[in-house]
Amino acid sequence: MFDFDAELAEHYGAFTSYTSAVSPALVEYYGENPTAEVDRLLDLYATSERTVLDLGCGAGQTLCRLAPKVKHIWGLDQNQELLAATRLRAERLGLENITTVYGSSYDAEAIASLPDATFELAFSRRGPNFSEQLVPKLRQEAMVVQEFVSGFDGYPLGEIFGRRHYTPYYYTDHELIISTYAGLGLFPVSSKVYFYEEYFRDGEHFEAYLKQMWAMLSNWRLPPCPYEAARDRAALELYVRYNTTPKGVRLLRQRKVYVLRRAPVAFYPCQKL
């Protein structure tokens, strides 16, 4: 970590892949670690002849790690502070094959600044999904790696805090992900689902984590609704009461990791490609 990382870690924490004072005291993956799997896949596909797109690059940790391995790497993010950290990290590391773009995956102006039919590898680590506007930026047979934060992540935290919809999030279901991306011309290669557990020392530690990680209590159907003690303390105490174990306060996590490629998709066997 560089000097500028310390402040970012305390402010953003795990939201941008930092470890901070409020990070879990214990994480148990039981031999299957989604973060390690994404790293393995990126190392497999990030070869010297490829141009790469990091969708939601954050503070640039992964982008700068891959830069020495590839021809050129672009980073897109809608947070100016984190993009500035990416540029500073690249400068400190002496990396010159990096281009950063400010904007979201649905920002027409930002996407227009990306070159067409250029990227042989694109990835998103818990970031935005790939949109119809982004697909033409990929070359044919380009590989796509995406890590999803799935519908059971944090369950039943959102339910106890009143932030969870009464039905599962079908937009993160396997069949819908495959169908949606197939409609964009992204053909599935593999998919894996991971459950793991995080533990916090006590209720105070868990409360500090929720204050930092406001996204844990977010719901795309609602306006931003971060933790507020006056409103949420009773829910916090109830959650801690029912989820305290000998290892600490338990939080269930879920991730999905997909690999896809840009290729013609035959929706019916008789369809000509």
From TrEMBL:
UniProt-listed SUPFAM superfamilies: S-adenosyl-L-methionine-dependent methyltransferases
Family annotation (Pfam families): Methyltransf_25
Methyltransferase domain mapped to chain residues: 52-127
Name used for this protein in its record: Methyltransferase domain-containing protein
Organism field: Ktedonobacter robiniae
